[in-house]
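Subject: for your reference before the review

Hello V.,

The reviewers asked for a structural picture of the protein, and I figured it would be easier to keep everything in one thread rather than splitting it across files. Below is the amino acid sequence we used in the manuscript, unchanged from the supplementary table.
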Amino acid sequence: MFTLPDTYSPEEKIELERQFEELLKCWKSRKNEQDVALVTEAFLLAANAHKDQRRRSGEPYMYHPLAVATIIASEMGVGRTSIICALLHDVVEDTDYTLEYISEHFGEKVAKIVDGVTKLTSEDLDKGVHSPQAETFRKVIMSMSVDIRVILVKLADRLHNMRTLSAMPHHKQLKIASETTQIYAPIAYRLGLYRVKIELDDLCLKYINPSVFESVQKQLEEVREKKIKEIEDFLAPVKAELEQRGIKVRTRAIERNVSSVWERMVKFGMSLEEVYDAYVARIIIDCQNPEDEKVQCWETFAVFTKYYYPDNKKMRDWVSFPKTNGYSSIHAVFMNKKGNWVETQIRTERMDETAENGFAAYWKYRDQNFNAESGLDLWMKVVRNLVQQADENHASAIEFIDNFKLDLFNDEIFVFTPKGDKITLPKGSTVLDFAYNIHTDLGNHCVGANINKKLSPIQTELKMGDQVEIITSEYQEPQEKWFDYLATSSAKTRLKNGIKDFRKSFKDKGKAMLKEYFDNAKIDFSKTNRNILAEKFNLSNRNDLYYLVATNKIGQQDVETCLKKDEASWSEYLVKYLTLGIVKPSSERKNDKAEEKPADNSVSGYVISTCCNPIPGDDVVAIQLPGQPIQIHHPDCLEAQKLMSRYGESIVKAHLQFGDDFAFLATLKILAVNKMGFGTTLFDIITNQEKLDMQAMEMKIEGGMVVATVSVYVNNLKTLENLIDKIRKLELVKKVERVGKRS
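And here is what came back from the structure prediction:
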């Protein structure tokens, strides 16, 4: 039996014991003496394994596994096995203990979960792997498809890492925060771990864009008291009437988290005051009978309509159609007595617990008559299918991540078959996605659909509640361009297989025609020459080559040009005639006089990214991928976060410094009262007063307002801020904002 080793000071031993007691205290799920004994054994093993390790803060490393286990027990509400895995999750990765030792002492399940959350090392990876982050994430998801507790431990680990991220250098903060916002926060949401998700989101924003985080946080503090009082007044008459009817309720005024408010401000170009749902009214019904839940929710909605006018366009019924993560509520927007819209959520106590605790509530209610299990099971079934497809198609780690995000991170919609069966699809799915979801052959021969009895093409995006009847034709065959019409990876996989099978039917005809072309050109009809031809046309196999020959897309002249002329001639031919996989020339401007300060060796050549258009004075992040110039982005640019989540080791320290002879494009969106002469005034400020070059100006009249979008060249952030300040002072102008910082 282990004891706490003497590498810990007496004070640290006391603190470790205190933290362990706190873990046992917050462990609310089923436990007996044997469970506690096993958890204690895991605690002591981990404390000994990590005895010589310290965190960057100087604290014993063992504080971290204890914190992760406490998150598992208190915030996720799961039990013994997950707690043991949390305590041991870094033992194999960071110490000499092996998975075999873990399996022998704690069982095979624990060993498999610990293995699932263990990072891949350079020895585990094949040479040429560009993204160890992606490979590790694929391993986590594949392990999760076998045991969901893998991702729970990983999420708890990531949450504590984010809580203590201040001790890390800035480039590490960006790497970890980007990976979290791109991958782990969306997974927490899909599992219904809402509190975990919003804390991760806020911590990510805090490190990716600290100035924005502090600004929005301060603005929320300034309006908090007033907004909460407004919501309490709004809820009071409804609560009183419901209690008169014998329905017990409790009410809450909910402040949205900082990152959620910021997303709304960016998405709609609003100030915080204009974001009507920055604060939410929530009413929670004490309903003891599961069969009465829907009735009482709708009765509560009816009482609201007695006092306030609803905005029916913004109503969402997640009670009749719960999300796959188990989330249920009626979302409605009402006009209060002050003329302000109020976002309102109506739910029962069970629905509220499921919304807040997700997975933990699922375990609590799974054996009752709530059908809480079905959503999680459906999600896990999709995960397993993705893992299976990735194996069958030998997908790379990055392809796997893209497919995973495509199918499982988007919000969902519910649509219906002609017989009334409900089908769940990611938001953005099309008629063709629906067809492939039903059956591969239905997708391959789809020519359109009747959506709510109205004829629609295959690329039509489906909406919540649509009833879809697929129309097929025996003459229709799967086509390459259909990939642009699909939003789900499963449908893309089925289309890919459908195209492959269709092209195989041309093999004999195409092969015979190609042999004739080779004979005419007096070229040996060898596998090598055929492979060269396929490679020149960027084709993955010879069946695709035979198909293009059989359909007259490759002819006699093509064969001779490819196999008889030199490489230079072929390159010219390829550019002129090949239509597959065209790469557009980059329009991004490069400068050679920027002052770069990389972390290691100096690097020449970089690109100012047009997706977010950073300018001198902005916070920037520099990302260097193999064989490419450094890319300069804003840290909160979505493309930058995507790259950092995959190539975190490629982040380099940089700042941009330019002389006045360099100019950068910035775009402003201006909302103003429509009055003759406004455009002339705006033009005068930009070109005459501020003496800036203008790239473009577009003005649209919307009622009595005008929306102007202006792109100008500026030397630095101060120049741009001066321009914005001067435009804001115009009497007709209501709003000015810089656009393009987030892509």
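For the response letter, the relevant points are probably these. The chain has five domains: 10-193, 213-357, 410-502, 505-577, 664-739. The mean pLDDT is 83.

Happy to draft the paragraph if you're swamped.

O.
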